[in-house]
TrEMBL record:
Protein name: DUF7719 domain-containing protein
Biased composition (Acidic residues): 62-81
Pfam families associated with the record: DUF7719
Domain DUF7719: 166-234
Sequence ranges of Basic and acidic residues compositional bias: 35-50
Regions that span the bilayer: 123-144, 165-183, 203-228
Organism: Verticillium nonalfalfae
InterPro entries, sorted: DUF7719 (IPR056136)
Annotated Polar residues bias: 51-60
Keyword Transmembrane: yes
Keyword Ligase among record annotations: no
Amino acid sequence: MGKMARQRREKAAGTIKLAHPDRSDPTEDTLLQMARERRLFEQADADPRNKTTSRSTPAANSEDEDDAADADADADADADGTGELSPTAERIMDSLLWTVSLAMLHFTLDVVVQHQYGIDIDWHAIILRALQAFAALLVLFYVLHAHPSKPAFVPRLPLRYQDPLRQLLFFTMAVTSGCYLIYITNTFGYLAVMKKAPTLGCLWVWAVIELPLGPAAASLVICAAFLWQGGYDIK
């Protein structure tokens, strides 16, 4: 019996014709169109009973407000989840990253200079000088480094002059600090070298990094020419 019933169902299913549903536009007016033609929506809004009902359901309104608040909170969470920083926060983080690297360079140069002259390394003094250099470099980097959030570092100066002025400043810093570092290491005593060399080395490296390739190479050529014409050597 079960087998015969299954066969009848299979035959009945086989006789049904398969076809796509009719997706053409309706030939007659829909209920929505009829309601608009008869202005039923305006009549419903003007009915005082509907207004009374809307006032008498504060729980429903509060639920809607809670849902809207939850939706706003979810949107804020999604925005926070993107991990994007504000321009000011991004500029501060960029300054901290570069300044920490330069302070580590100052620390390394300080250790190398003291080791070169055979002086007992005073770690406390070296760390203190590195922290002082970090504070000073952080302010200088934040003000002078070019950042998209604030391309102008000189107030009331047209924007087209900001970048050339910044390059001129760093070019002057690179040439001055490089030549002066070469000069003091060849003419001054070890106490003056230990005091000034780490800071001058940091400023020189930073200025060269900030410059484009052409001006950076030109500043190094000038320092090399100063080294050659003065008969100095690299110690």
